[in-house]
Amino acid sequence: MARYLAGECSRTERVQIKNWITFDPNNRELMNEYKEIWESSEKEKVSAEVLFDVEKDWRQLRSKIDQDYRELNTSFPSGQHQNRARSINLRRRFVPFLRVAAIILVTSLASVLAYQNLYHQPEAVTPALREISMEKGQRGNITLSDGTKVILNADSKIILPEVFQSDKREVTLRGEAFFEVTHNPDRPFIINTGQAVVEVLGTSLDVRSYPDDESVQVVVSDGRVSLSAKRECADKNAILTTGDMGQFWVKENRITSKRVDDLELYLGWKNGLLKFREAPMAEVATELERRYDIEVYFADPELKDLRLTAELKSRTIRSNMEVIATSLGLEFKMDQQEHEITFYYNNKD
Fold it and tell me: How far apart are CA 237 and CA 250, in angstroms?
């Protein structure tokens, strides 16, 4: 439910929530209450993307309950039968608080499970490597055993060992992820993408390597990075620093680098922002399909070549489709389940 409110759920989850809402009017009323809580928290800059400390949240909740329970005990002398009054009063006072806590805990659940998977001591039969993946329409936060933080984008996966080696920390990435690597000069952090290798000592960077991309792309948010090709290449490697973007062009077998004037074009996704600058609609469609787990179609093939410059900040699919359509002078239609979107010209069927 929290992922639905944040616009982070998969297509299947979205259908389940919509069916649940329409099944019972009480469910619709409950969802409206959750929306009010969610929108109120957003105004206070509380983001669903934050990786919550579940134990801290629970301690605060338990402390609040204990405090109010002690106050109730003080209010009613021993020997008086006030059980029913206490129960009603407690429930009335804590229902709103518990609802907020429930949303926080549900939002944290995926991260807790990832944490448990990473830190669980395996038995002898457990494979040496484990895989963590995100489906289309989802993103996830992961903290590795060395303290490195990873935000895994939609339709992506990371493969890592149960325990890092003593001389290096090595992972394999398919898709896109943002890394905040814990500094350790004695144990370099190595990211394998299949076509290229990224090596860092301690930095923040974005690595993108989807199977259908023309290049392996590295954008450095802070620090110093080495990008090199796995096979023989004219340019052996590129040293990238803060604000640089390096790319290994797979078909051309070469490495290029340049300065980036707007990091949000490449890093905004981790905060729920999709930003495009003169991007072909064919590429925009691919990003939308990953972000929302939808299918995007064009009534006219030439629409794929239109160039979009826009910032998509809304959590709802429809609102973002309206921004795109307005920017390009198009219309769109969406099926009832919000699975398929088709763009078309105003004057064309």
Answer: 14
Q: Residue 155: helix, strand or coil by DSSP?
A: coil
Say if strands 149-152 and 129-134 run parallel, antiparallel, or are unpaired.
Answer: unpaired
Whether the model clears a pTM of 0.70, i.e. scores above it, the answer is: no
Angstrom CA distances, 67 to 60, 63, 88, 93, 271, stand at 11, 6, 17, 12, 36
pLDDT, position 148: 94
Rounded CA separation 259/274 (Å): 20
Helix axes 54-75, 83-119, angle to 10 degrees: 170
Quick check: 140 and 134 in contact, CB under 8 A? yes
Are the CB atoms for 171 and 192 separated by under 8 Å?
Answer: yes
Separation CA 347–CA 220 (nearest Å) = 44
115 against 25, higher pLDDT: 25
What are 276-309's pLDDT values in tens digits?
A: 999 999 999 999 999 999 999 999 999 999 999 9
Q: Which residues pair with 228 in a beta bridge?
A: 197, 237
**314 alpha carbon, distance to own chain's centre:** 15
- Consecutive H or E run containing 83: helix 83-119
Nearest to 196 by CA among 242, 253, 234: 253
Contact 337, 18 (CB under 8 A): yes
Instruction: With CA atoms as reference, report the closest residue to 197 among 223, 218, 211.
Output: 218
